[in-house]
TrEMBL record:
It is found in: Cytoplasm, Cytoskeleton. Keywords: Cytoplasm, Cytoskeleton, Microtubule. This is Tubulin polymerization-promoting protein family member 3. PANTHER family: P25 ALPHA-RELATED (PTHR12932), TUBULIN POLYMERIZATION-PROMOTING PROTEIN FAMILY MEMBER 3 (PTHR12932:SF16). GO terms for molecular function: tubulin binding. It holds the Pfam family p25-alpha. Belongs to the TPPP family. Residues 134-154 have a biased composition (Basic and acidic residues). One of its GO terms (biological process) is positive regulation of protein polymerization. The gene is tppp3. The lineage of its organism: Eukaryota, Metazoa, Chordata, Craniata, Vertebrata.
Amino acid sequence: MAESADMDQLLTSFKRFAVHGDTKASGKELNGKNWAKLCKDCKITDGKNVTSTDVDIVFTKVKQKTSRMMTYEEFQRALEELAPKRFKGQSREEALQSIFKLVEGKEPSNVGVTKVAKAGAVDRLTDTSRYTGSHKERFDESGKGKGREGREEIVENTGYVGAYKHAGTYDNKLKTEK
């Protein structure tokens, strides 16, 4: 069979795929969905010799009848089932080594995972330089929010109305009259 270092890498890959997408998974058993993902990500399925149907059939064949998961030993048997089919020109032992090399050290890929879309409407709605009215007062020139000062009317106890032009001139007026 394979060397112990290779088997350690195979076990590591098995555990990584076993816990993928499931926060409660222990890493000791692999479900059918993650088995199919492992075969796809490690390029065991090639669309010609090994298809997703073959992968599902092998999964059902090697796992226990009452179980919905496969153990590490069943995982090795499943790879042994798929090896001659995937690598037709090689002997059974060479095919097994080749399929182990495909899986060793691999981990689930996140290709195709939904990313944050930045549409033109979002840019337009979050551009603070285009805000008008009372919303304009909440941000400074750089677009940074002013915090509490931008949300609340800060009361200045000067005795003048907020928009009065000649604020602070009363004392000057009294001095000039005397």
